[in-house]
Structure formats: structure tokens, C-alpha cells
Amino acid sequence: MSSIKKTKKSNKDILQAPKGTRDIRDDFFYQLQGFYEKAQEVAVYYGFSGISTPIMEHTELFLKGLDADDDAVKEMYSLTTKGGDNLALRPEGTAPVMRSYIENGMGSLPQPIFLYYHGPYFRHEKPQKGRYRQLHQFGLEVIGSPKAVLDAIIIQTGYQILKESGREITVKLNTLGDPENRKEYVTELKKYYKKHIQELGAQDQKRLETNPLRILDSKDPQTIKVNHEAPTLISHLNAESKKHFKKVLEYLDAGEVPYELDHTLVRGLDYYTHTVFEYATVLDKGEGKPLALGGGGRYDGLAKAMGHNKDVPAVGLALGVDRVLEIAKKGAYSPKIQRKPKFYFIQLGFEAKAQAFGIIETLRERKIPIKHSLSKDGLAAQLANAEKLNIPYTLIFGQKEAIDKTVIVRNMETRKQDTIAIEDLRDYIKKLK
Ligand code: HAM
């Protein structure tokens, strides 16, 4: 960074994670991991392969690809390096994946390319429920074909990942047509809004000049009233665009993916053409306003907008993992790794402590995870730790057991104890509930 200045932050401020970010720990750490495991598994079964792009990209990649008025661009964290480059923390994953496709010549491989990715993304938004400055996404992109069947496979794959949450998932769907359709439509829309400018909310009056399409998904109650009578894009679609959208709907029907058409859905990012969609869940009472759990669409013009010499047709989505985990049923995305070991390992005496390393390794080889407090000596202190952690069994390893190559298994609830040869431990453990 060119110059790093000290600010006058208090120690209290410095010792807190930056606003809108949080530590990933405890249950959330494992839920996040479990979600990524499940989502990857579904993606792999549907034919996708993994990719991971850098956290930073050239700022211009997003400026060119996403349009200056896009939310993601306005909220970008950008910095100037010592060498004078402008880099940005990635606000989203589609432009970076398309950059990688172009840079690595993936266009010369059999098309299309199916890719999935996941990780942190950064947007300088006002933090609130379900809105973070460091957010987590799981994304899917199919690059290199304009076919409608791929729009449907993307929607279907995302739907199946979200269904694993145990909640009812709905898909909202719309088409933005091709750029020609859109241009004609935007002209008509502008005319309509100009007639009603006094009735629009303040922010939407400004949007009339910068991005009139976004007025359609305004949350302002005044604007919502005006939108009831606004012209719809569906009525401006040309024959090709209509055919494309009709096919997407037919494939979704065949896959039994439930969807609702929503002509006000335009999405925040400017690169979309044809199909756009968002996922939500049917909310239980008291859960507040529905937030989009994810969304995406077709973006045939992005590659050229980013400076490539030709169009590359593509379609994709990103799921908002933070939000999905907030609505998921308990245990829905459990990771494969055991989060709460069933055993607490207690060692007593010098000989036992010295052999403990070997025992822990033997247990690991037999896939028996444990918690322990090797730094402690007394039985009472170690038992108290096991109790605090609510671990159902302890493995007690004292001088005698060290000589006999055995271990005492103690049920913490019933206090029943068995002495078991270490080599029989795995079979014994299998029989415990
Ligand atoms: P997006 O709609 O900007 O699309 O983000 C996708 C999802 O990320 C949202 O539906 C939401 O669940 C989640 N999300 C966005 N911002 C936040 C935030 N501040 N805090 C928590 N969650 C958030 C994209 O990013 C496109 N790249 C999707 C795409 C892929 N289109 C084509 N391919």
C-alpha cells in the first residue's frame, strides 16, 4: 500500500473485528464447512469442477464488467499497491471466473465449461441482518454455450443445494431479453417513469437517469405503487428471446423445479441478459422480511464488456451462504468431520503422559477423535473438563494401563467403567451408542 497511516482508534476498537465482519468459529465454522461439502457434492454430481480465484483482482475488471452503478461496484473495497496498481477485494465471483476462463484459454477445451467456487467476498454495505461486509458465496458458472438447457441446469443445481437446508425453497424467475429488447424496453420504461416522476421515491427519481431498470425492484412503497402499471419487458421480447425463455420454463417443468414468474425481478448486477432468477424460502412466522438466498442469470455480454475480443455466452448463480445457514434446519449441513468428539482422554502419571502421544496417534489411525488436556495432571481436574465440555465418555490412561496397553472407558453419565485392550478399542467403541 502506498502509505499506511495510523488512525486514532482506541484499543477497544482495534480489538474488535472490523464492522460487518465476524470470526468464523464454533458451530458456524462447521456449518460453513458442512455447507461447502454438501454444495460441492451436489455440484460434482451435476458435472461441475472446482476453481478458486484470487481474493484480489484488478479494479478495472469489475468496473468494466459490472457497470459503475451496480451495487457491487459502488460497494467495492479498492486499494492502490506500492507499484501503483489498482486492486479490489472481489465483490462477487462471476467476473473473476470469466477472467480465468479467458486467461487460461478454456475456450479451446470442449464447451461448455462447468465450474463451481466458494469463499469470502467483500462489499462495503451497511451491516444489518443477513448483510455482511465479508460475505460467503457458493457459485456455479457454465461458460461457453448460449443454450437454454444450461440456464435450467444452473437453476436446478442451486435449487437442490438449497433444498438440503430442510426448508421450502421458491424460485423467482424473469427474463431481461437480449440487449436490443432491453434498449427498446428501457426507452419505454423511462417515458412511463418520467410521466410519474413526482410519485417516485427520492432515490428512484435519481435512478431514472442512472439505471431505470432498477426502479422496478425498488423497495420504496411509493415506487411500488407506480410499478403496478409499469410496462413489462415480456411484452417487448423478440421471437428469439421468447423462445429461449419458453425453453427454460419447459426444462424446469421437466425437472419439477417450482418457480414463480416475477416481472419486477431485474437483479443488482448489470451484466445480465435473458434469464434472471432468485431463490427465497417460505418464511415461518416472526422471521421478518424474506432475503434472497441466492440468485443469478445469463450474462452473454460480460466477456466483451471486460475487454475480451468476442462474446462468450454463459450462465451462473451465487448462493449467499451466510443467509442460507441462518434459515437452515438444525443439522442440515453437517460436515463429515466429527465436530463433537465422544471421548475425553485422561492421562495419569509420568509414564502415561509420555505414552499419550502414541495413544492419540493410535486413536487417530483408528478414526477416534478426542479432546484432552495433556497439560493437566490430576484426575479431578481432567474429569471436570470432560464434564464441562459435555463429553459422554472418558478414556482413562494411568500407570497400570500404560504397562498393560489398556485403557479404562468410563461412561460419564452412568459412571460405569470397562477396561479395554487398546487394540480392541475400535470394536468396543462401535458398540457404544
Ligand atoms: P448477487 O445477487 O449480488 O449475485 O449475490 C448473490 C447472493 O449473495 C445474494 O442473493 C445474497 O444471498 C448474497 N449476498 C449478497 N450480498 C450480501 C451481503 N452483503 N451479505 C450477505 N449475503 C449477501 C452475484 O454475486 C452474482 N455473481 C451471481 C451470479 C453468478 N450471476 C451469474 N453467475
What does this entry look like structurally?
α2 (26-45) runs antiparallel to α6 (148-163) and α6 packs parallel to α10 (239-254). α13 (350-365) links the parallel β12 (343-347) and β13 (370-372). The chain has 433 residues and is α+β, with helices and mostly antiparallel strands. The protein has 2 domains: 11-178 and 238-327, BirA Bifunctional Protein, domain 2 (2-Layer Sandwich); 343-432, Rossmann fold, CATH 3.40.50.800. An 8-stranded mixed sheet has the order 1-5-6-11-10-9-7-8, sandwiched between helices. It has 16 helices and 16 strands. The protein has helices at 11-14, 26-45, 59-66, 71-74, 94-103, 148-163, 179-195, 202-210, 221-227, 239-254, 302-305, 321-327, 350-365, 379-388, 399-404, 425-431; strands at residues 49-50, 56-58, 78-80, 86-89, 113-122, 134-143, 169-175, 259-261, 273-281, 294-298, 314-320, 343-347, 370-372, 393-397, 406-411, 417-421. Histidyl-adenosine monophosphate binds at residues 72, 92-94, 123, 125, 130-132, 135, 137, 139, 141, 268-269, 292-297, 299, 316-318, 320, 322-323.
CATH fold name of the largest domain, please? BirA Bifunctional Protein, domain 2
Distance from N terminus to C terminus (CA atoms, Å) equals: 56 Å
Overall outline: elongated
What's the oligomerization state? single chain
Topology:
Blueprint lengths: L10 H4 L11 H20 L3 E2 L5 E3 H8 L4 H4 L3 E3 L5 E4 L4 H10 L9 E10 L11 E10 L4 H16 L5 E7 L3 H17 L6 H9 L10 H7 L11 H16 L4 E3 L11 E9 L12 E5 L3 H4 L8 E7 H7 L15 E5 L2 H16 L4 E3 L6 H10 L4 E5 L1 H6 L1 E6 L5 E5 L3 H7 L2
Parallel strand pairs: 1-5, 7-8, 12-13, 12-14
Antiparallel strand pairs: 2-4, 3-4, 5-6, 6-11, 7-9, 9-10, 10-11, 14-15, 15-16
Helix pairs in contact: 2-6, 6-10
The structure holds histidyl-adenosine monophosphate.
Histidyl-adenosine monophosphate binds next to strand 6, strand 10, strand 11 and helix 12.
